[in-house]
Design a protein that fits this description.
mainly alpha; 8 helices; 88% helix; globular; transmembrane; membrane
């Protein structure tokens, strides 16, 4: 259990660190767009080389595809609710959408991490670095956008601290549930994270990166994808 607490905190901490970095300085739009593009590429690699491949290896395509559908639908509904609330206040929902995506991705992903720890699979350095590479840009971009829409600094920190704590607790929950869930559950959890991420990437992260960084977005995304794919394959 101690390992689950430790690695859960390590994997979730970039979410809070990114929010704190957004408080320290004002990030230029172009740099934010490049960071978001890099993070989007890293998340694409995570879906392709970690979540999808591992899900198929664990239980085949059935549970994985069911999880993908559930994750995509959950993010879509959550994002539309957020959009409706933001419309009432005439504010941009971009930062909030990234936070929702981080939560819907992070909980099942770290749930699977906890189950793997309980099964004695351990955690590779490459995996930890890959999580940092994908989570840090998400939280920096989201926190910066939320600050620009007028959200108080304290609320931004509390929001991302809450997301990080929930994701870390998911690792502990996965460790505790390992003895009662099978490979099908793990594959479905991988699929849920992948589905939520794919919708978030298309709906929020990539369009926002493109808006901020313009022509540099594609190059940043390719670099992020290549770096995260190399980490995943090295693991």
């Amino acid at each position: 259990m101690g390992q689950a607490v430790l690695w859960g905190a390590v994997a979730a901490s970039p979410l809070l660190v990114g929010a704190l970095l957004a408080l320290v300085r004002t990030w230029p739009d172009r740099l934010l767009g490049i960071i978001l593009g890099f993070g989007a590429g890293a998340l694409m690699a995570s879906i392709a080389f970690e979540l999808w491949e591992q899900g198929v290896a664990l239980a085949g395509h059935g549970p994985l595809v069911a999880g993908v559908a559930a994750g995509a639908l959950c993010y879509y509904v959550a994002a539309r609710i957020l959009d409706a609330r933001q419309e009432k206040t005439k504010r941009d929902a971009g930062g909030g959408s990234l936070a929702v995506g981080a939560l819907l991705d992070g909980i099942p992903e770290q749930l699977v991490l906890g189950i793997g720890l309980a099964a004695g699979e351990g955690v590779g350095v490459a995996l930890v670095v890959a999580i940092v590479v994908s989570n840090l840009p998400e939280s920096i971009g989201s926190a910066s956008d939320l600050l620009r829409t007028g959200m108080r600094r304290g609320r931004v920190v509390l929001l991302w601290a809450g997301v990080a704590v929930l994701c870390a607790l998911a690792t502990v929950a996965g460790f505790a549930l390992a003895s009662v869930v099978g490979d099908g559950f793990r594959a479905a959890a991988n699929g849920f994270a992948a589905g939520a991420l794919l919708v978030m990437l298309v709906d929020s992260m990539v369009p926002e990166a493109q808006q901020k960084a313009k022509e540099a977005t594609g190059l940043a995304t390719v670099i992020g994808f290549a770096f995260a794919a190399w980490l995943a394959l090295a693991a």
